[in-house]
Amino acid sequence: MKPLDLDAVRAFVLVAELLSFTRAADALDTTQSAVSLKLKRLEAHLGKQLLERTPRVVRLSADGLTFLAAARDLLGAHERALRALSGDERRLALGLSEHVADANLARQLAQLRVHDPGLVIELHLGLSAQLLAQFDERRLDAVIVRQEEEEAPRGDARRLFAQPLVWLAAPQWQWQPGAALPLALLAAPCAVRAAAIRALDAAGVAWTEVFVGGGVAAVGAALAAGLAVSPLARRVAPRELIDVGARLGLPALPVSQVMLHSRVREPRTAATLQLLASGLGTG
Fold first, then answer.
1. Could you say which architecture CATH assigns to the domain 6-88?
2. Those residues with Cβ within 8 angstroms of residue 171's Cβ, 6 or more apart along the chain or in another chain
3. Could you identify which of 95, 130, 182, 270 might form a hypothetical disulfide with 143, taking C-beta atoms 3.0 to 4.6 angstroms apart as the criterion?
4. pLDDT averaged over consecutive 10-residue blocks of the chain (283 residues)?
């Protein structure tokens, strides 16, 4: 049997991990049709069907599941061979907005480690404006941040997905009408904080700040404890919280865009960054 095409093997692993030809194509910076062609050639080479495809679902066949572990080992061995000769350490200094990182981050980082074991990832969580400033100062190689409605789009950004905000609180939390609305917020200059305050002020809703968190995890803990209500994206908040906006008559909150800004050019590092970007917003 002829040697395997490493590009085709890499495409297979990405499709298997992302369960999507479209997201795998984004991660490889190519087209969906190109990924599909690589997979068909790989299956023809092996004489096995690796994937079961329907119009809406992509899943591994029994042979695909068996081949996946070996495919990962092959790509890892290839990466180790390259490192042994080059001696270069690849690093990615990545900024990720507090309002974008979600509960799937641990799984996504593990996936990146399997995909690219030779890459050292330096991850910084923070506010979008601060991360963008560090990117512009070339202290970060790439950032994944929120772009608010009032912000002008930048030419160096690629849109990943839309992210609406909702008013979240614990199921048992109650607000007495007529009392100031108790809020749990991130500290200024958080853009989500500013957007929520603008919406409340415009609607004439009195509010009071009862908790300030250093990150979304801290705010989520305060909400779960029943201290307040907070404007957050549903996907980044603890699962037990509920949307109370309609029940309490709170004003609608804006929808922001999650954007990727990157100056990464090294092909393997760029592919790993795209893998992370493609996996966000899907959990």
1. Orthogonal Bundle (1.10)
2. 240, 241, 242
3. 95
4. 88 86 81 92 93 84 92 84 72 94 86 84 94 96 90 81 95 89 93 94 96 94 96 92 94 93 89 86 61
